[in-house]
Design a protein that fits this description.
Blueprint (H helix, E strand, L loop, with lengths): L3 E7 L2 H15 L4 E7 L4 H10 L6 E2 L9 H18 L4 E5 L3 H12 L4 E4 L14 H11 L2 E4 L2 H9 L7 E3 L3 H12 L6 H6 L4 E5 L9 H16 L3 E6 L4 H11 L5 E4 L4 H10 L2 E4 L2 H10 L3 E3 L8 H4 L3 E3 L4 H14 L14 H12 L13
Parallel strand pairs: 1-2, 1-4, 2-3, 4-5, 5-6, 6-7, 8-9, 8-11, 9-10, 11-12, 12-13
Helix pairs in contact: 1-2, 1-7, 1-15, 3-4, 4-5, 9-10, 9-14
Length: about 375
């Protein structure tokens, strides 16, 4: 029987990290031929991460130009996907999460009547514009996809309330935990010279910021909170890997470039980033993936958003919503540092076996023997 052709549409760093375990798991199966379409939505960041996992795309759409609107980006991705899939039609299209690349991949699958699988399905804030445009992207992908790989039971419940049939939803855990464990098992030291020298005794705080809704004033408030923290605690060192977007980078550099014990870094290779998380006492971030990674490592997270589609981290005591207000961010970090959190790896988002569960479902979907066992948080 011919191999089942499975196309993965991705374009950002988190998509590479979260889909790599699935691509690699399918590569180990003789039934499947997985391949990657890279939209180029995060060109420099994504390309570095491909090499970490030993992957390379079959197609590169190279869609990004400076200061393009969501209208233009969406149309360029769709046009590129049409060209690829009309000439190289897969049996299945896989998308992940809530990016514009993922939405376009799902929409292309619908237009071409190709089955679509959605990894990390069912996350919701129930706030149309928070995060923007991700919340509506994932809602719309939910209407277009044929298979829904929900990371948690709560995600499944969200999909069921939206009318998705139960037999199309599979609780697998989040594939980011697979990637995290695999990388930490292979990389035990820092490659970045600043991290190798400066991550030492004392209190380590890692900060990230990139959300569109936080651009401008929100990110400035995060930076000002960092200034306050190093004044309040002389034992604190803050490591801030910067997103390449100038709307993020310029604001952070303006506020923090010369502040002692604040280290502004270019985007880090994934092994260095997850090792930095593992060494942190507190993380401050607006990233969904960082919430999942930190929880798996038992590191508390101050979420610089008003909502989260991952309420499990709040419920297990490892996260707090602080918004993007300087004072609330500082207070939340100080609370974690002063009260302390017993480091416990929270098994709320996955156990490192999500990719294998997805493979078993795909085997069954295409008529092969497969054994799927649902992920149960613990």
């Amino acid at each position: 029987m011919p191999e089942i052709s499975v196309a993965f549409v991705l374009g950002t760093r988190p998509e590479v990290v979260k889909l790599a375990p699935v691509v690699l798991a399918l590569q180990r199966r003789r039934e499947f031929l997985p391949w990657i379409v890279h939209t180029g939505q995060h060109r420099e960041m994504a390309e570095t991460f491909f090499s970490v996992f030993g992957l390379s795309p079959r197609y590169d759409l190279q869609v990004m130009v400076e200061q393009q609107s969501l209208f233009y980006l969406t149309s360029r991705i769709l046009e590129g996907l049409e060209r690829v899939f009309r000439s190289d039609r897969p049996d299945l299209i896989v998308v992940q999460g809530d990016t514009t690349s993922a939405f376009c991949g799902a929409l292309a699958s619908f237009y071409l009547r190709i089955p679509c699988a959605h990894v990390e399905a069912g996350l919701r804030t129930f706030a149309k514009y928070s995060p923007f445009p991700e919340e509506m992207n994932r809602v719309l992908i939910g209407r277009l996809a044929d298979l829904h790989f929900a990371p948690t039971p709560r995600s499944r419940e969200n999909l069921l309330r939206e009318g998705i049939p139960n037999d199309r939803i599979f609780v697998t855990g989040n594939t980011v935990v697979d990637a995290l464990f695999a990388i930490l098992g292979r990389h035990t030291t820092f490659e970045h010279p600043v991290l190798a020298q400066e991550v030492q005794d004392g209190v380590t705080i890692t900060v990230t910021a990139h959300r569109r809704e936080n651009w401008g004033k929100g990110i400035a408030e995060v930076a000002l909170a960092v200034r306050d923290l190093v004044v309040l605690r002389e034992d604190v060192r803050v490591f801030f890997p910067l997103h390449p977007n100038p709307l993020v980078r310029e604001v952070v550099e303006r506020e923090l470039v010369s502040i002692p014990r604040v280290f502004l870094l270019d985007a880090l290779p994934y092994p260095d980033f997850v090792r930095l998380l593992a060494k942190s006492h507190v993380v401050v971030s607006d990233s969904g993936g960082v919430q999942e990674e930190a929880a798996a490592l038992g590191i508390p997270v101050v979420v610089t958003r008003d909502t989260t589609e991952r309420p499990e981290i709040i419920e297990c005591g490892l996260g707090v919503l602080a918004g993007c207000q300087r004072e609330s961010i500082v207070q939340a970090v100080m609370d974690f540092l002063e009260k302390g959190v017993a480091q416990r790896k929270a098994r709320v988002f996955g156990d490192g076996r999500a990719a294998e569960r997805i493979v078993q479902v795909l085997l069954q979907f295409f008529g092969f023997p497969g054994v799927y066992e649902e992920f149960t948080p613990g």
